[in-house]
Amino acid sequence: MRTTDTLLEVDDLHTAYGSSQILFGIHLQMRQGETATLLGRNGMGKTTTVRSILGLTRATRGTVRFCGERIDHLSPDRIGRMGMAVVPEGRMIFANLSVEENLRAFAANRSRSIEPWTLERIYHLFPCLKERHRNMGNQLSGGEQQMLAIGRALLTNPRLLILDEATEGLAPLIREDIWRCLDTLRAQGQSILVIDKYVHKLMHLADHHTIMERGKVVWQGNSGQLGASPDVWHRYIGV
After folding, report:
1. 166: left (phi over 0), alpha (psi -120 to 50) or beta
2. What count of Cα atoms within 13 Å lies in the side-chain half-sphere of residue 42?
3. Which three-class secondary structure state does DSSP give residue 48?
4. For residues 108 and 103, what is the distance between their CA atoms, to the nearest angstrom?
């Protein structure tokens, strides 16, 4: 049921690539200021769900509403301007632009925040980016590129920040930096949707979890419920 503080609502979403059906009736709801996850093994439809929400892959059936407005018929750029930002799998940093140029290229107050993200705030959140602000994108480590991708998304001042494989391929210490960053954003009221495999960390970070299996939602609940359901872990998340 939709509530007045509902930010994102996905209802009966079906998506296919050609004749290959990938999503089968996905249901998902997020509230303002909530941190939520999409969990499941690789290849279960998590990234396709995100792509369908963003309009990058057109759904064949179902609806997506954002801030109360139906968006499943809109173009990706229009959806982005409404206040969605994604940190994509693979980061997609512009290699031939400097750190600062990567950041400035995306700066916009799409949510019309009274305290918008600025270059200075991003540098405060990620001091290493300030130290390397003249470095080109291809001169950064994987962890620094992920920080840059997050900073770039935040500079659009999104209503919803989506991270696809938030810490994939990062060293343990860098992963901890990313978790601390997300915890800081959560405390500031940023709405976040995260795809990642480190469920133990996400249970401390997120309010609500959705588990997918073969293109379907097979479980939804809060961290307490997930922690108390070891059978769910073993069946849908464990390797």
Report:
1. alpha
2. 4
3. helix
4. 10
